[in-house]
Structure formats: structure tokens, C-alpha cells
Design brief:
Layout lengths: L1 H7 L32 E7 L26 H9 L1 E3 L2 E2 L5 H10 L3 H4 L5 H4 L10 H8 L4 E6 L17 E2 L14 H6 L1 E3 L6 H18 L3 E6 L7 E3 L1 H8 L10 H24 L5 E7 L38 H4 L3 E4 L7 E3 L3 E2 L3 H9 L32 E5 L5 E6 L2 E6 L9 E6 L15 H17 L10
Parallel strand pairs: 1-7, 1-9, 2-11, 3-12, 4-5, 4-7, 6-8
Antiparallel strand pairs: 2-10, 9-10, 13-14, 14-15, 15-16
Length: 479
């Protein structure tokens, strides 16, 4: 099968990548209802390996099983109460690195390609692609941007500053938030420490950055990319004591993980408190999402594509199928919350949104006057923020995901229908396609590909056409 891929898909060719000059100047007029004489601030809090059902607030008010009866996240709940939950919010990928790139650049994993050659394709001084901080600085030169926490974009010698940030922790990765020495400990041990995952340090860095820029009158973009809740599991002793004595839930029953999530939530609370203390709540957007779904089990099972119920115990992502590493809903549907001026409080939107929508959304809220470059795959969801209804106008009507390593597969979602394409056989799954109606089958248990061959064929064709249009090499660096 892999031989056939190359006859269908052209390899990535850097000469074909479209370039935009970062020296272009744009107007600073504002758009939509949220216009203000003072440019708005933006805080993006990116959590790590954080499942859709893991917060104590329900991501879908119509589903009791979309929240946790064991975990406690009062500060994430606080943002949800102040703003809008997206019941169908998606990360751009099922693992860390491509999701983080996709959010920054507003592009799909297909368009951005595999790790192999990424540094060359996205060389910041040869190919000046728009990023969130660069876009904001084109909108208003006074914007300041910071990235604290886990970078993990595998950008070689290039740091966050090379992509538009003014301040950062550098080219950090999982190791900067981990303390495990024995690989088995990573999944099986709970480390009781005073400063788990650097959560308090990141909140302190973020608060200091906000204070400086508020004092100097600069609007800002602050991204805090937490190491939590990626393993290893770290938590404060007092937090662990609280959860070790608490009655377990049906799907969430790990006191160490629950405690780590609670510590993370407290760190988010510190940022919210600083926003209120600085008096900038009325002009600050807060966006919370995860880089990908949570692991189905702790420790993980070997067959991550297995249907629900085959592992003898409920998944931590139930009712969703799968988890981190795969493109079933459990791997890519995540907590996704936005609060800020003009955002309807205590609200929910059921319109699908995805991480690569953030760049055009922030652009519209900030008053970016230019058109989005045609290499941006996302669309603005500003139209949803006042009542949850409306459309996200992307270049394509589909949501695209791809997984290069381990399980070579892709997905496309159009409306309620989602097609997964497995490009090759492997020990736990056969090459082929699967089709699901998510409106009726959120758990992706009933494959409709044989019952609805025309629908399956249409989605597969749309997927292949998109991959070809962006010069996608689906096999990536596996060969």
C-alpha cells in the first residue's frame, strides 16, 4: 500500500510553499462587535494530554458523561461560567508537536508535514509564514507576546522568538517538565513534590509578563503551554492527600492524576486572579484548550485502536473512543473554552471548532485588516461567540487530521460524518476506511462504510483531493 501512496501523493516540495512577507503593513481598524479603542489582550492556556471528559464542568451540557465526577477543576469551570464551551472542540492532532505547530500557524498537519524536514520548510527567515504573534504585531506594533512552558515544536535551532514571541522559556520539551528516571515510573508512579510540573513558576512568569505590559500600556498575547497533565504524574503532597481519600469515579479513579489536574487548575486560577487584579478583564480574551486528548488508560494499553469495552475496564475518555495517539474522538476532541468581551456567559456552542481556527479568530478579534493568507486552513469562529450559533468559514468545509507515526491514518469530518482512512495494515488494524455518524454514534462503534458506500467514497475523495492540493506526503518520515 505504501508504494501506492507515492503515486497518489506528491512529496512535499519547499518551492511550492506559499510565502507571505512579514514586512507588509496592515491597518489597525477593528472588526465585529468586540471592537474597542484599546487593543484586546489574549491569553491562551494550552493543557497537555487533557481529555474531553476530564473537567468537572461538562463540555456538553446535554451529556452527563462529558464531565468528571472525580476530578475538580473549579477555575476551568470559572472560565466556562464566564464564557463559552465548545462541545465539539478539536485539537489539530492526536499528539503534542503537530498540534502545537498547527495552532501557531493556523495550518493542518497535512499542510505542515512530518517532523522530517520541518525546520527547512518553516525556516523563519526564508519562509515568513504568518503566526499568531506576528499577525498581532502586524495589526498593532505595540503588541507584545510571550510563550512560557512547553514549546516542543522540534524547530531545530529556532526558538519561539524566531516566530514572533518577545519572551519565552526557549526550546523546551517534555523533559523540562519531567523528573522520572525509570521509564516504568513515568506511568506507574506518583511523584509527590513541592513544585509539580513547574505550574506555579509558569503562572508567576505569566503574571509578571502581564503586569509589565499593563504598566507600559502594551496589549499582549500570552501563551502558557503547561507540562501538565502529561506523564510523569507529579502533584503536591497536600493535593494528593485530598484525592487519595475521595470516592473514585466510574471512569476517573486515579488520585495522582486527579491531584495533578487540580494543581494545574490552581495555576490557571492564579492567572485569572491576576487578570482581575490588573483590572483588564473587560478587554482580555482567555482561551483554554488541550493539545490532544488524554491517554485512554494509565498505564496505556498496547492496542490503542481497540473498540470500546475490549480492555475489560472503562476508558478514561468514555463515551469517546480511543485517546492520545489515534484519531478517534478520544484522541482529538478536547476541552475548548473561550471567555472575554462579547462572549456570552454560561453558554455552549455545538458548532465544531479546531485549534487551527485560533489564528484567524484572534486576528478578527484584534482587528487584523488583511485577508488571511491562502495557506491558512482555519477560519474565524467570532460569529459564534455572542450566541453559539453560526458558521466557521474555512477554505474547506472539512476538518482534517493525520497521524504519521505508529498508526498511519487520516480522518476527515464534514457535517456529522467522519471518515477514517488507514493507509496500511499493522498488527492491530487492517488497511481500509471507516465511516461514522457522530450525531448518532459519538463512541464510533458502528462503521457505516459498507452501508453508505456513496458517502464513504465522497469523503475519501475529498480527503485525497485535499492532501494532493497541499502536496501532502502521508507516509512522512516512516520510510
Amino acid at each position: 500500500m505504501l508504494d501506492k501512496l507515492y503515486s497518489r501523493m506528491r512529496p512535499l516540495r519547499s518551492a511550492r510553499w506559499i510565502v507571505v512577507s512579514i514586512l507588509a503593513t496592515w491597518g489597525s481598524g477593528f472588526s465585529h462587535l468586540y471592537a474597542s479603542e484599546t487593543p484586546p489582550n489574549f491569553i491562551l492556556i494550552l493543557t497537555d494530554d487533557h481529555g474531553w471528559t476530564s473537567t468537572s464542568t461538562k463540555m456538553d451540557a446535554a451529556r452527563k458523561d462529558s464531565g468528571s465526577e472525580f476530578h475538580e477543576t473549579p477555575h476551568i469551570d470559572r472560565v466556562a461560567a464566564q464564557g463559552m464551551r465548545f462541545s465539539q472542540g478539536y485539537s489539530p492532532a492526536a499528539i503534542c508537536t503537530p498540534a502545537r505547530r498547527s495552532i501557531l500557524f493556523g495550518q493542518t498537519h497535512f499542510r505542515m508535514g512530518p517532523d522530517d524536514g520541518f525546520e527547512e520548510r518553516y525556516h523563519p527567515y526564508q519562509k515568513a509564514y504568518l503566526t499568531i504573534p506576528l499577525m498581532l504585531k502586524q495589526t498593532n506594533a505595540r503588541y507584545r507576546a510571550a510563550h512560557f512552558g512547553k514549546w516542543h515544536q522540534k524547530t531545530g535551532d529556532f526558538s519561539p522568538e524566531d516566530f514572533g514571541f518577545d519572551q519565552s522559556d526557549g526550546r523546551t520539551s517534555n523533559g523540562d517538565g519531567s523528573i522520572w528516571e525509570n521509564k516504568e515510573d513515568k506511568w506507574k508512579k506518583t511523584f509527590l513534590v513541592d513544585a509539580p510540573k513547574g505550574i506555579d513558576r509558569l503562572s508567576g512568569r505569566g503574571a509578571s509578563f502581564m503586569r509589565r505590559n499593563v504598566a507600559s500600556g502594551n496589549p499582549f498575547f500570552l501563551q502558557i503551554s503547561h507540562y501538565a497533565t502529561h506523564v510523569d504524574i507529579q502533584t503536591k503532597p497536600e493535593t494528593y492527600a485530598r484525592f487519595s481519600g475521595k470516592l473514585r469515579g466510574r471512569t476517573h479513579d486515579h488520585p495522582g492524576y486527579a491531584a495533578m489536574l487540580a494543581d494545574l487548575d490552581s495555576g490557571i486560577g492564579a492567572i485569572l486572579d491576576e487578570v482581575e487584579s490588573l483590572g483588564i478583564s473587560d478587554n482580555t480574551y482567555i482561551l483554554i484548550m488541550a493539545d490532544n486528548g488524554g491517554a485512554e488508560f494509565i498505564p496505556p494499553v498496547s492496542n490503542k485502536l481497540a473498540p470500546p469495552g475490549t480492555n475489560g475496564r472503562p476508558s478514561r475518555n468514555d463515551p469517546l473512543r480511543g485517546g492520545k495517539w489515534v484519531l478517534y474522538e478520544g484522541g482529538v476532541r478536547v476541552p475548548f473554552i473561550v471567555a472575554g468581551p462579547g462572549v456570552l456567559a454560561k453558554s455552549q456552542s455545538d458548532v465544531p471548532v479546531i485549534g487551527y481556527d485560533l489564528l484567524p479568530t484572534i486576528a478578527e478579534l484584534a482587528g487584523f485588516a488583511g485577508a488571511m493568507p491562502d495557506y491558512v486552513d482555519g477560519g474565524s469562529f467570532v460569529a459564534l461567540l455572542d450566541d453559539g450559533e453560526g458558521e466557521v468559514l474555512r477554505p474547506s468545509d472539512a476538518l482534517f487530521h493525520h497521524r504519521y507515526a505508529s498508526y498511519l491514518h487520516s480522518s476527515i469530518r464534514v457535517g456529522d460524518y467522519k471518515l477514517l482512512k488507514f493507509w496500511a495494515d499493522h498488527p492491530n488494524h487492517r488497511e481500509g476506511i471507516e465511516l461514522y455518524d457522530l450525531s448518532q454514534d459519538l463512541g464510533e462503534t458502528t462503521d457505516l462504510a459498507e452501508r453508505m458506500p456513496a458517502k464513504a467514497k465522497a469523503l475519501e475523495t475529498q480527503l485525497l483531493d485535499y492532501i494532493e492540493a497541499v502536496d501532502g506526503n502521508v507516509a512522512g518520515d516512516l520510510n
